[in-house]
Write a structure and sequence with these properties.
about 160 residues, alpha+beta, Nuclear Transport Factor 2, Chain: A, 7 strands
């Protein structure tokens, strides 16, 4: 291999790696923003701040909940006073910036919550889809899948 070939390959590697770092940096920035917004939305739900939550929904927001039903903005508004979120924990999150204006975030979620006085299941896998619209990231879709409770070990 000639010196010119080595230099050309090295330059190509440097350009390629700088593009990958730029993409990774963009993905990390968006992931941090979306994760932070989602946590702020759950904190707002704990303090019953419906306006904050709705301000982060896209106009055509839809949620497929653990019960399999589809809920829209107006359903969230109608049931808001009956919902009580006391605490939550997100873990094992996966994030993907699919395009420059669409991303998803999926996390295991443990909750201490009730609806109409009935305790909700405590473990879910929650997946959210976000889109860039009007100069910000908005929650467009959410899927909550109930995770069966782990059997308690007998001693």
């Amino acid at each position: 291999m000639t010196i010119a070939s080595v230099v050309a390959v090295a330059a190509l590697c440097l350009v390629s790696s700088s593009l990958a770092v730029g993409q990774t940096s963009e993905q990390a920035t968006v992931e941090k923003h979306i994760t932070g917004t989602l946590r702020q939305m759950y904190e707002a739900e704990k303090r019953k701040d419906l306006d904050f939550v709705l301000s982060n929904f896209a106009d055509d927001f839809a949620e497929v909940a653990g019960d399999g039903r589809v809920y829209r903005r107006e359903d969230i508004q109608a049931g808001w006073s009956e919902m009580s979120l006391h605490d939550y924990k997100l873990s094992d999150c996966l994030f993907k910036l699919m395009t420059h204006d669409a991303a998803y975030l999926s996390c295991d979620m443990e909750v201490d919550a009730s609806y109409k006085g009935q305790r909700l299941p405590t473990r879910f896998r929650v997946t959210t889809v976000w889109t860039w619209a009007g100069g910000r990231w908005l929650l467009r879709f959410e899927q909550g899948t109930t995770i069966a409770e782990r059997p308690k070990a007998s001693h």
